[in-house]
Inverse folding.
């Protein structure tokens, strides 16, 4: 051991320096900024907004944050719980990955949010904000002392109501509502049916925050035949004829208002759980499906056969 | 033929840019990469410029750390051994050792590219779950390899000291993440070396341009292989940089052996970062991310980039030795204390300009920690706790 005095001096200075740096770092709060103001990598920023997309892969969680503008926030080796619709406060360094800016989080706070239809009495609470979306009311738990411009987020809220004309199940369910120009995505799986709710809209995509789903109401066959192509319907009737050709099954069903063709193509038989031996003339059947016009005549491409 | 000339031109451009980034302290390859957005749609040509730049940089960046004691993140640990050789009149040998290490590692890396294309995904998948244990094991090896209990305690304390320092500095908004390592390494390895040598040395001895290397061929081959292996390791795992691997491979090496190995790590890492992109589609360095943004890396482009790296490496080797010869003729004519004193001042001003007052404070604290190994007689690599400690916390899922 040489130069004990120098060593002690260096240790004291280093300790003192680490303490000073640590205190400075604690007190150094980055200015809150809007996501749209983040334009280049390298800056240390603090943002907050609503989580509108959340993907878990292996040990990582990739979040998209929205406050009127949108940015990616990757959480590496993440074991916590973030869901679509949560409020997220994040501090970190802006980085560029695959030509997209992202915030690498150093500090963050998640506020769980419940979205629901609420009563007037609940709206008086200081900890809520709401937006009247026609008949639906969105209620979001407010974050204490939140400087976030809530209007920017609620301006992006849209309500929807209608019939689901197609849906695809995956990690996130994506679906379309007949007549709507938006594509919808929902954490909860939904099938063809009637849906109403609200979500946050970014470009043409709506992330569903709250929805109510119901089965389609029964239409008469005459009503179904009047519907435009692509419209989802549910009809009930008696099988008038069963024709099997090249593995496809063609059913004609009839109710008191008329009859309609229901083709069950062979690649759909397993999905629908229908076999040629299971269907016979005179059997009562309920079909939920999409109206299709083939050679000028309407038919129903089935999604559910009961 | 036209394409060949265009690609050669791109390679030469990258080579000159690499000389610029390599020689200027505080300027890293990543510093120039944002300007590469000026090359949108340049595809393969842009990629060749970037890769030639990255490879050339690894040959030249040892010159400022050897001759002036100014390190960057990749060359930090080489400062002391290289500077020791400089102070004993072997400055040219120090630079030559790093050139030999880089060139050797590049040749080994290129020779191993074909098997590595197949092995890389296997290594990645097998080793990734155990990375935290591997790191912990190497940290323990580095500390326990000290010769006495007292030194082991000192080494452990310095590792923890550096670790807490790294944790505070690297996980806070004190200085922008892009430049934070500059004041850290200037303090830990640069300023501390300069101040201690200022105290003990009054004259810089004459620097004969002696081409001899005082290492046996087998020692050179072993250390080139070590550097190449460590380069592969670095490019496999996120968060582990050449400095981490350098700390690991520096156990029980002589200064000359160490210089060969450490220079090899950087060059091999540059090559295997590209292999990583090609095989597991993971970009592990700023240069490779920039390449990924420009092109889809197919087999043909991969081979073109490797060929250009060989051309750039050949030219960079000759250039590095030529620049070292010119500088070493001038250096002994300047009073050593004046040279080191003015280097300290330039270092301080550069850190101030790039990172502000906070950066200078970070450098001073780093310097206080950096002098501890010099006075306690333990290895300098324990200061790499500055990076190893935070990365261990990350992999172990711990927060302070």
């Amino acid at each position: 051991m040489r130069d004990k005095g120098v060593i002690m001096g260096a240790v004291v200075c280093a300790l003192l320096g680490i303490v000073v740096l640590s205190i400075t770092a604690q007190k150094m709060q980055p200015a809150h900024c809007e996501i749209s103001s983040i334009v280049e990598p390298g800056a240390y920023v603090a943002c907050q907004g609503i989580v509108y997309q959340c993907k878990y892969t292996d040990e990582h969680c990739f979040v998209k944050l929205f406050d009127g503008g949108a940015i990616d926030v990757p959480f590496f080796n993440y074991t916590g719980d973030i869901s679509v619709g949560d409020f997220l406060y994040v501090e970190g360094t802006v980085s560029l990955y695959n030509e997209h800016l992202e915030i690498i989080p150093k500090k963050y706070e998640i506020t769980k949010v419940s979205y629901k239809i609420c009563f007037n009495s609940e709206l008086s609470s200081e900890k809520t904000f709401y937006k009247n979306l026609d008949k639906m009311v969105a209620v979001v738990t407010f974050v204490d002392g939140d400087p976030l411009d809530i209007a920017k987020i609620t301006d992006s809220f849209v309500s929807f109501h209608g019939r689901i004309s197609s849906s695809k199940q995956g990690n996130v369910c994506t679906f379309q509502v007949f007549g709507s120009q938006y594509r919808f995505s929902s954490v909860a799986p939904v099938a063809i049916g009637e849906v109403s709710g609200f979500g946050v809209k970014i470009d043409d995509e709506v992330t569903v925050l709250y929805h109510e789903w119901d089965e389609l109401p029964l239409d008469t066959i005459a009503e179904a035949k009047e519907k435009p192509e692509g419209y989802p319907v549910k009809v009930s009737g008696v099988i008038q004829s069963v024709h099997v050709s090249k593995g496809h099954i063609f059913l004609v069903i009839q109710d008191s208002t008329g009859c309609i063709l229901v083709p069950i193509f062979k690649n759909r038989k397993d999905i629908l759980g229908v076999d040629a031996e299971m269907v016979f003339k005179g059997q009562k059947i309920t079909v939920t499906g999409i109206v299709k016009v083939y050679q000028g005549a309407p038919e129903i491409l089935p999604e559910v056969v009961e | 033929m036209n394409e060949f000339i265009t690609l050669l031109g791109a390679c030469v451009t990258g080579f000159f840019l690499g000389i610029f980034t390599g020689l200027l302290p505080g300027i890293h390859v990543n510093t120039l990469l944002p300007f590469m957005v000026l090359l949108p749609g340049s595809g393969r040509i842009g990629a060749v410029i970037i890769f030639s730049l990255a490879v050339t940089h690894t040959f030249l960046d040892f010159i400022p750390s050897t001759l002036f004691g100014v390190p960057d993140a990749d060359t930090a640990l080489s400062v002391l051994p290289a500077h020791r050789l400089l102070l004993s009149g072997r400055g040219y040998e120090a630079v030559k050792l790093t050139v030999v290490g880089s060139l050797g590692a590049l040749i080994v890396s290129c020779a191993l590219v074909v098997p590595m294309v197949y092995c890389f995904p296997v290594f990645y998948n097998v080793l990734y779950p155990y990375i935290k244990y591997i790191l912990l094991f190497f940290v323990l090896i580095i500390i326990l390899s000290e010769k006495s209990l007292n030194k082991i305690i000192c080494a452990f304390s310095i590792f923890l000291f550096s670790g807490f320092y790294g944790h505070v500095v690297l996980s806070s908004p004190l200085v922008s993440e892009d430049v934070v390592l500059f004041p850290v390494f200037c303090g830990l390895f640069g300023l501390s070396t300069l101040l201690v040598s200022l105290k003990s040395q009054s004259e810089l001895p004459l620097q004969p341009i002696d081409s001899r290397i005082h290492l046996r061929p087998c020692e050179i081959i072993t250390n080139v292989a070590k550097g190449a292996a460590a380069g592969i390791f670095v490019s496999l795992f996120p968060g582990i940089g050449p400095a981490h691997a350098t700390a690991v491979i520096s156990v029980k090496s002589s200064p000359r052996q160490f210089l060969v190995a450490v220079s090899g790590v950087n060059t091999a890492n540059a090559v295997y970062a590209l292999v990583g992109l090609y095989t597991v589609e993971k970009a592990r360095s700023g240069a490779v991310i920039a390449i990924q943004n420009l092109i889809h890396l197919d087999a043909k482009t991969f081979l073109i980039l490797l060929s250009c790296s060989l051309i750039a490496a050949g030219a960079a080797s000759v250039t590095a030795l030529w620049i070292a010869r010119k500088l070493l003729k001038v250096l002994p004519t300047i009073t050593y204390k004046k040279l080191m004193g003015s280097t300290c001042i330039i270092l301080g001003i550069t850190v101030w300009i790039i990172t502000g007052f906070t950066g200078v404070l970070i450098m001073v604290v780093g310097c206080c920690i950096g002098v501890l190994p010099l006075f306690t007689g333990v290895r300098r690599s324990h200061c790499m706790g500055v990076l190893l400690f935070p990365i261990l916390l990350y992999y172990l899922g711990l927060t302070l």
